[in-house]
From TrEMBL:
It comes from Candidatus Enterococcus mansonii. Its EC number is 2.7.1.121. This is phosphoenolpyruvate--glycerone phosphotransferase. Residues 2-122 form the PTS EIIA type-4 domain. GO terms for biological process: glycerol catabolic process; phosphoenolpyruvate-dependent sugar phosphotransferase system.
Length: 122
Protein backbone atom coordinates (compact mmCIF):
# COMPACT_ATOMS: atom_id res chain seq x y z
CA UNK A 1 0.00 0.00 0.00
CA UNK A 2 1.44 3.35 -0.96
CA UNK A 3 -0.52 5.41 1.62
CA UNK A 4 0.01 5.37 5.35
CA UNK A 5 -0.88 7.21 8.55
CA UNK A 6 1.35 8.96 11.08
CA UNK A 7 -0.01 9.90 14.50
CA UNK A 8 1.76 12.62 16.50
CA UNK A 9 0.71 13.20 20.10
CA UNK A 10 2.17 14.79 23.19
CA UNK A 11 1.32 11.66 25.19
CA UNK A 12 2.65 8.21 24.34
CA UNK A 13 -0.51 6.44 25.44
CA UNK A 14 -2.73 8.70 23.32
CA UNK A 15 -0.68 8.09 20.18
CA UNK A 16 -0.52 4.35 20.75
CA UNK A 17 -4.22 4.24 21.63
CA UNK A 18 -5.27 6.02 18.45
CA UNK A 19 -3.08 3.66 16.40
CA UNK A 20 -4.62 0.67 18.16
CA UNK A 21 -8.13 1.96 17.48
CA UNK A 22 -7.60 2.61 13.78
CA UNK A 23 -5.91 -0.77 13.27
CA UNK A 24 -9.35 -2.25 13.99
CA UNK A 25 -10.66 -0.85 10.69
CA UNK A 26 -7.43 -0.55 8.70
CA UNK A 27 -5.25 -3.56 9.35
CA UNK A 28 -3.46 -3.23 5.99
CA UNK A 29 -2.64 0.48 6.33
CA UNK A 30 0.88 1.23 7.62
CA UNK A 31 0.54 3.26 10.82
CA UNK A 32 3.42 4.75 12.78
CA UNK A 33 3.39 6.84 15.94
CA UNK A 34 5.54 9.66 17.30
CA UNK A 35 4.24 10.34 20.80
CA UNK A 36 5.66 11.64 24.03
CA UNK A 37 9.27 12.26 24.96
CA UNK A 38 11.90 9.99 26.45
CA UNK A 39 11.30 8.84 30.03
CA UNK A 40 7.55 9.19 29.47
CA UNK A 41 7.51 12.98 29.50
CA UNK A 42 4.75 14.92 27.75
CA UNK A 43 5.78 16.53 24.46
CA UNK A 44 6.71 15.91 20.84
CA UNK A 45 10.03 15.78 19.06
CA UNK A 46 11.23 16.34 15.54
CA UNK A 47 13.43 13.24 15.83
CA UNK A 48 10.56 10.93 16.76
CA UNK A 49 8.47 12.30 13.91
CA UNK A 50 11.29 11.72 11.43
CA UNK A 51 11.64 8.19 12.77
CA UNK A 52 7.89 7.61 12.32
CA UNK A 53 8.15 8.89 8.74
CA UNK A 54 11.13 6.62 8.03
CA UNK A 55 9.58 3.51 9.60
CA UNK A 56 6.29 3.92 7.74
CA UNK A 57 6.49 1.80 4.58
CA UNK A 58 4.16 4.09 2.61
CA UNK A 59 5.37 6.84 0.32
CA UNK A 60 2.39 9.13 0.95
CA UNK A 61 1.65 9.81 4.61
CA UNK A 62 -1.49 11.23 6.17
CA UNK A 63 -0.28 13.06 9.29
CA UNK A 64 -2.50 13.85 12.27
CA UNK A 65 -1.56 15.60 15.51
CA UNK A 66 -3.08 16.65 18.83
CA UNK A 67 -1.82 20.15 19.71
CA UNK A 68 -0.08 23.16 18.15
CA UNK A 69 3.56 22.44 18.98
CA UNK A 70 3.15 18.98 17.44
CA UNK A 71 2.19 20.74 14.21
CA UNK A 72 5.34 22.87 14.38
CA UNK A 73 7.53 19.76 14.74
CA UNK A 74 5.58 18.03 11.97
CA UNK A 75 6.12 20.96 9.61
CA UNK A 76 9.88 20.86 10.25
CA UNK A 77 9.95 17.11 9.63
CA UNK A 78 7.92 17.47 6.43
CA UNK A 79 10.60 19.82 5.10
CA UNK A 80 13.24 17.15 5.76
CA UNK A 81 11.60 14.03 4.28
CA UNK A 82 11.41 12.90 0.69
CA UNK A 83 7.99 11.33 1.30
CA UNK A 84 4.80 13.15 0.46
CA UNK A 85 3.15 14.16 3.73
CA UNK A 86 -0.40 15.45 3.88
CA UNK A 87 -0.86 17.38 7.13
CA UNK A 88 -4.39 17.68 8.49
CA UNK A 89 -5.58 20.32 10.99
CA UNK A 90 -8.45 18.10 12.05
CA UNK A 91 -9.78 16.34 15.13
CA UNK A 92 -7.12 13.70 15.80
CA UNK A 93 -9.10 10.57 16.64
CA UNK A 94 -12.01 11.08 14.26
CA UNK A 95 -9.92 12.12 11.27
CA UNK A 96 -7.19 9.49 11.69
CA UNK A 97 -9.88 6.81 12.02
CA UNK A 98 -11.79 8.08 8.98
CA UNK A 99 -8.69 8.41 6.82
CA UNK A 100 -7.37 4.96 7.75
CA UNK A 101 -10.73 3.29 7.11
CA UNK A 102 -10.96 4.96 3.71
CA UNK A 103 -7.34 4.10 2.86
CA UNK A 104 -8.08 0.47 3.73
CA UNK A 105 -10.59 0.33 0.87
CA UNK A 106 -8.38 2.28 -1.58
CA UNK A 107 -10.42 5.48 -1.55
CA UNK A 108 -8.86 8.23 -3.72
CA UNK A 109 -6.88 10.87 -1.79
CA UNK A 110 -9.13 13.72 -2.98
CA UNK A 111 -12.20 11.92 -1.65
CA UNK A 112 -10.50 11.39 1.71
CA UNK A 113 -9.64 15.10 1.88
CA UNK A 114 -13.30 15.94 1.21
CA UNK A 115 -14.41 13.57 3.99
CA UNK A 116 -11.95 15.14 6.47
CA UNK A 117 -12.83 18.77 5.67
CA UNK A 118 -15.78 18.95 8.13
CA UNK A 119 -13.44 17.78 10.93
CA UNK A 120 -11.16 20.80 10.53
CA UNK A 121 -10.33 22.57 13.78
CA UNK A 122 -10.70 26.32 13.48
Amino acid sequence: MSNGVVIVSHVKEIGEGVARLIKEVANDVPITVAAGLDQGEVGTSFEKIMDAFDKNTAQTLFAFYDLGSAKMNLEMAIDMTEKEVLLFDTALVESAYTAAALLQVDTPIETIKEQLAPLKIK
